[in-house]
Amino acid sequence: MTDTHLPVDRRFGLDRRITLPGPLRLDGGALLSPVDIAYETYGALDAERGNAILICHALTGDQHVASSHPRTGKPGWWARMVGPGKPIDPARHFIVCANVLGSCMGSSGPASINAATDQPWGMAFPVITIRDMVRAQAMLLDHLGVETLQAVVGGSMGGMQALSWPATFPARVKACVVIASTARHTAQNIAFHEVGRQAVMADPKWRGGEYYADQDPPAAGLAVARMAAHITYLSEAGLTEKFGRKLQARPDQPNGAKTFGFDADFQIESYLRHQGIAFVDRFDANSYLYITRAMDYFDLAEEHHGRLAGAFKASKARFCLVSFDTDWLYPTSESRAIVHALNAAGAPVSFVELASPFGHDAFLLEAPELNRVVDGFLRAGA
Ligand SMILES: CC(=O)SCCNC(=O)CCNC(=O)[C@H](O)C(C)(C)COP(=O)(O)OP(=O)(O)OC[C@H]1O[C@@H](n2cnc3c(N)ncnc32)[C@H](O)[C@@H]1OP(=O)(O)O
Ligand SMILES: N[C@@H](CCO)C(=O)O
């Protein structure tokens, strides 16, 4: 087993990658060995080993939750929530955030090397599930000497992992915070993901996922996939307020003008193109296929004989559910269904729907009310 520091400059926090021998038995039946997990920690484990908080990231997130990204220098994706003086604070908590299995920021995924062939896995990487991601995190926590989590916290796909934790390891979780998430992917969720996957696979550069050798990825397909997905992370009201029908300024047309053609005349078109292009620079197309698939397969009730309450039967955890009123990707009704199941299972649960114009991605933006809810919930159990 090796545990190495990755060579990055850190404001605070420690960026590492561990190679665990495994094997990790995956829901699909495959055995993964070895298992690489890239992660960051902040703060220190207390003498009782009782202050660990695991933060689970969303679809395209990473382990850089609170410290600046080593490549872009941008602040961590949840620096608003995690850091000195924040609800999740390295002065009080031992904070762990790991890159999920299947991703491309250092953990085992389709872009990493298959030890059996000495080549990138590509589409030979085994299909993974949310529960497989959670099992890999449990292996990391074993390595770090964390038996019980004070809390597991996540938004979006991070919330799916957070929910999966007490269902998979009921004795290891004392509290669970689930933000803007769901206990299952609906037909509409799967439909949007399938559009994105088909955009990637229709790009001639995808080549069955074998594009690593000449470093010529299916950038156009992945950018279109991200553009479509990004719309689902926003809200109509937010888009109207930010862009409306405003025209995009260009060097030759500083106030914008219609070209009566197919340039990005509208600001919203230009914005989406920017989001698509920026995404290609930071994400692997095959990882996008694998992780969206894991989300589509997620159905916590199905894993427990069709009863969502059954998933929480053995759990002793307290739960905090948060939704946003403009999130149409994982609307409040999905959180309510989880709350009902938790009530049926007799689990302590608090639930709040917050108002925000920003849609699903509101959990990533400045949201003082969200910080107050998370802070209050974590302190109540400390
Ligand atoms: C969840 C995790 O675990 S981490 C993964 C989360 N991260 C992401 O999803 C990254 C991409 N997502 C986003 O940017 C999301 O919208 C958010 C919520 C995270 C950020 O939202 P905001 O801070 O409001 O940023 P916004 O959506 O306005 O995008 C700003 C970018 O659009 C660009 N932009 C804005 N308007 C235009 C336009 N008309 N034309 C072209 N580009 C534009 C800005 O220049 C800026 O570019 P930059 O990010 O390269 O600096
Ligand atoms: N925008 C976030 C949340 C999506 O669920 C991401 O890309 O991970």
TrEMBL record:
Its EC number is 2.3.1.31. It catalyses: L-homoserine + acetyl-CoA = O-acetyl-L-homoserine + CoA. The active site is at 156 (nucleophile), 327, 360. It is found in: Cytoplasm. Substrate binds at residues 226, 361. Keywords: Acyltransferase, Amino-acid biosynthesis, Cytoplasm, Methionine biosynthesis, Transferase. One of its GO terms (molecular function) is homoserine O-acetyltransferase activity. It is an enzyme of class 2 (transferase). Pathway: Amino-acid biosynthesis; L-methionine biosynthesis via de novo pathway; O-acetyl-L-homoserine from L-homoserine: step 1/1. Residues 51-366 form the AB hydrolase-1 domain. Transfers an acetyl group from acetyl-CoA to L-homoserine, forming acetyl-L-homoserine. Homodimer. Belongs to the AB hydrolase superfamily. MetX family. This is Homoserine O-acetyltransferase.
